[in-house]
Amino acid sequence: MALPREYTGQNCSAARALEVVGERWTLLIVRDALYGVRRFTDFQAHLDIPRAVLADRLGALVESGVLERVRGATGRGHDYVLTDKGIELWPIVRSLSMWGEQFYPSDKGVHRFYTHTGCDAELDVNGRCTKCGQSVPAADVTVVPGPALRGQNARTDPVSRALAAPHRLLEPLTIG
Questions:
Q1: What is the CB neighbour count within 10 angstroms for residue 147?
Q2: Cα–Cα distance list, 139 to 38, 87, 100, 168 (Å)
């Protein structure tokens, strides 16, 4: 039996936020959208998520205004693009990723580094550039794969291969 999505009886903004992004897979979909994944098949290939679950989560994110479903760049199919509301989830995804690296590290090293595109310096745990001290918005962040994602550790799906190169957040990945 599936758990309900609502936290009835909770008069709390965190509970209301979890109603939108708290289900399994949802933050990983948002993370991939931040990384530039846009197509249903690419989300599925990268996450190994059942099609029905992915369709449900994408539909819920569109309904809540986190993603927008738009005509695909090729004119065929649809893409899922983060709205401003969805982009505001970047600090949460970044913080959760950095928390995971700190408390649940891989024996193969760091998975990803986040750098300030303008300075080419890493972000600290608060999302500030370690060189200029600026709080860096998602559009000015470059994702750099770490050792845990390279070599023998590398996944071979098309999205993982595209993510194996440094790239800016929010820019569509070239997959193929």
A1: 12
A2: 16, 9, 23, 7
- Structure confidence at residue 109 as a pLDDT band (50, 70, 90): confident
CB 17 within 8 A of CB 7: no
CA atoms of 67 and 88, how far apart (whole Å):
12
Q: How do beta strands 112-116 and 121-122 pair? A: antiparallel
Q: What is the identity of the amino acid at 69? A: R
CB-CB contact of 51 with 98 (8 Å): no
The DSSP output letter for 145 is E
**How much is the pTM?**
0.92
**Tokens 């760091």 label which residue?**
110
Q: What is the pLDDT of residues 54-94, one digit of tens each?
A: 999 999 999 999 999 999 877 788 999 999 999 999 999 99
